[in-house]
Structure formats: C-alpha cells, structure tokens
Amino acid sequence: MAQLCDDCFAFGGELMKSDQALQMLADRLDVVVGSSNVGLRDALGRILSADIRSEMAVPPHDNAAIDGYAVRFSDLAAGDDTRLKIIGRVAAGQTADRPPGDGETIRIFTGAAMPPDADTVLMQEDCREEDGYVIIPPGIKQGANRRFAGEDIAEGDVILTAGTRLRPQEIGLAASIGRTELPVYDSIRVALFSTGDEIRDTGGDLPPGCIYDANRYSVAAALDRLGCAVSDLGILPDDYDVIRYTLANAAENHDLIVTSGGVSTGEEDHVRAAVDVLGHMHFWRLAIRPGRPLALGQIGTVPFIGLPGNPVAVLVTFMRFARPAILRLGGCRFIEPSTYRVRTGFPIHKKLGRREWLRVRLEPDTDGNPVVYKFPQDGAGILTSMVASDGLVELPEDLTSLEAGAMVDYLPFNEFG
After folding, report:
1. Residue 375 has what DSSP assignment?
2. Structural domains in the chain (count)
3. pLDDT at position 2, please?
4. Residue 137 β-bridge partners
C-alpha cells in the first residue's frame, strides 16, 4: 500500500486551469488502501488490484454458431444439391461419437462442439431432410457458422487489467474463464461531515435563518456509488476546537476526509485553520464556475478534500475533481469521463480564462438530432437545476461567446456513475 507524500496537493501561483489540475491529480495521487479477494457476486463496482490472465481458451473448443448440420466442406458439390446421410446428433454439452465419413453429416445444435473433421455448418432452415438424409443446397462458404476455440480469449491472454472498475461485463468475462473470486482494492474509508451553525439535519426543526443539510446527503450518495465505506460524522458547529478534534480523530482511522463548507477565508470558516494546524491545506486557485472555493490538503498522510458550501458547486466539483481523485486513491486508473459533441439551443457568453459548466437538458430537434437547452437559473444554490438537467455543458477557458446552434462538449450525468 502506497503512502502519499506530505505535499501531493501543493500548488501556488496564478490561477490553474482545470486540465492542469486534473493532470496533477493523476500524477501525484497513489493508492491508499490494501487489497483482498472477493467473490464474483460481491465484485460489482470494485476496483481490480491485479491483472487477470486466462489459463484456458474461450470457447474451449470449436463449436456451432447455429442449429443445423455439421459437414466436411470437401463433401459438398460445387454447383448442385448435396445429399448426405445423417449419422448422429450432438447438442450443446455433448460430443459426437465419431467424425462424419464420406457422404455423411451430423445434426448439430448451437454451442455444441464441432465433430472431428467437420469444418462447416449448414443452417437447418436452408436444408431439408428425406428418409435419414439431408439435402444441402450449393453456395455455402467453407468454415461458415463455425466458432473457433479461443475466438474470444486465447490461453494466456490478460483479460482484465489492474485499475479496472468492475462492471457486469467484466464480472461475466471473469466467470467465462472459471474464476470464482477476483483480487480487488479494499473500499476507501471516508469520514464525511458538514459544517455550519446554520445547517440542520433532516427530520428536525428548522429555526429562522437555518437550512437543511442537502450537501452531506448528496456527497454521501456519491461516495456510496463509488464503493466507499462512509462514516457520517454529521454536522459540526462553527467551532475551531470541535472541528480540529474531529479532523484529528478522523485521520487516525480513515483513508480520506471529505467536508462541505468552512474552507473559505471568512471568520467562521474554521476548517481551513484546523487543517493548517494538523497538516497542510492547499487552496487550489482554480479558474472555474461553479466551484470556488475547492480545497485539498492532508492531515499527515491522510488526504483531505474540502468541497464548497453551495449545493450545485458541491456536486459539480465532486464530479469533476473529487470523484477522479477518490477513484485514483482507491486504485482505479485515471480516466476522464466521455464528452459528446452536441448542438446548443441557446447563445453563450462567458468570462475569458475561466472554465464553466452549464446545467442543461437534452432534447431532440425536428430531425431527431440532440440539442441542449440551458436551465434558466444558473445560481450555485439552485439544486433543482441538477434534478431537471441531464448533464453539463463544459466550456473551455479560451471561449467567450457562441451563437445558438454551435457545437459544444456535453457531459451526461450518467458518465459519473
């Protein structure tokens, strides 16, 4: 298990571009957890900790791709019907008693092992049977409808690589070579809390001037989706001593600490001061909207991510910065989400030098082509905009304006699953 150096998040100077920030995360972060074996049924969403090499070929034998008749191609007439005697029948899971001889064929079904010497399979719908014989029309190509051993996986192939986040298809692939377990990284133990005297937990009273804590629940859900083991430490008051004590304790038995709010430079933003005393706080001066302030640091070797207080900014910065950092800490390869070029249904104007993310819904135009439309309110506190939208439009730093109908980069929310 690797340990982070004391200054993996350190950065100073001018405003940093998003791409530079993401590259720094990719370069500086390493795995902070151990690994263990889990059964296939428990492997979904986990991150593979070692390459998986196949000790067998898949399929393990040549087999029929359809229901029909296995023949030797050399027995077929070139330009006329061929009449062959049916000498046997082989279904999936069975093998033929003997190979077909001169003028013979074997009835075969999808997935069944090819009889020795047979090299071609005729589709049953193209043939007809008469008194124990089959009549085969001309025109079939040699090797048709035959699957070869190792066509999917050759013996010795690396079928899955370390750092892969396991989806149903990877688990199925592992099962296809007979694996019952997979080596995966342990779940990241994340301590999570919100700060603020005005924050109240759901289900309780809401005094004047207070708001319910949406951020902790949305971040906890996002962490759960990433397979983290989350310790919900609740809501901390704007009290330096309480925050410092909680951070110090959390660093003793967690792999990561994530907070919401309290990382700006106001008099009541005590998280920053506490992290500075216990370790290092690095304010990343990112030229982004929404999202500032975004703080990253360490308490000893335990990384710390301080998300903003506004609910939209929390979700956007989690998706674009916290999520890749957390996956990397958990052993995942650093992979950017896929973007898609789509047409805008609105004009765009933005500040030069800043990367922005707009909340948009996706709708087809009259020709069925996808077009994105901006949510009418773009404040960082409008959480309904995230529910009503399908994804984000990402606008690069050098862009200042676009007319309606221009092409932009679209990031669907399902890319962040």
Report:
1. -
2. 3
3. 47
4. none
* Dihedral over alpha carbons 217, 222, 228, 229 (to 10 degrees): 10
* Whole-number Å distance between alpha carbons of 263 and 314: 12
Cα–Cα dist 363/370, whole Å: 6
Backbone angles phi and psi of 357, in degrees to 5: -125, 125
Q: What integer pLDDT is reported at residue 156 of this predicted model?
A: 97
pLDDT digits (tens, 9 = 90+) for 93-118: 999 999 999 999 999 999 999 999 99
- Decide if 30 is inside a domain: yes
- Listed as ranges, residues in the chain with pLDDT below 70 are 1-14, 262-269, 283-284
Per the domain annotation, does 382 fall within a domain? yes
Distance from chain centroid for Cα 109? 38
Residues 209 and 273 in one domain: yes
Place of tokens 């393990």: 60
Looking at the fold, whether 191 and 275 belong to one and the same domain comes out as yes
pLDDT tens per residue across span 355-377: 999 999 999 999 999 999 999 98
Best CA proximity match to 218, nearest among 387, 21, 339, 336: 387
The tokens for 190 are: 């994340």
**Which range of residues forms the domain containing residue 86?**
63-147
- Average pLDDT score over the chain: 91
In this structure, are residues 245 and 233 in contact, taking their beta carbons and an 8 Å threshold? no
Look at residues 329, 357, 378 and tell me which one is the last residue of a structural domain. 329
At position 63, the amino acid (one-letter code) is N
The CA-CA-CA angle for residues 349, 350, 352, to 5°, reads: 130
Q: What are phi and psi of 105, to 5 degrees?
A: -145, 165
395: nearest Cα among 344, 321, 334, 337: 344
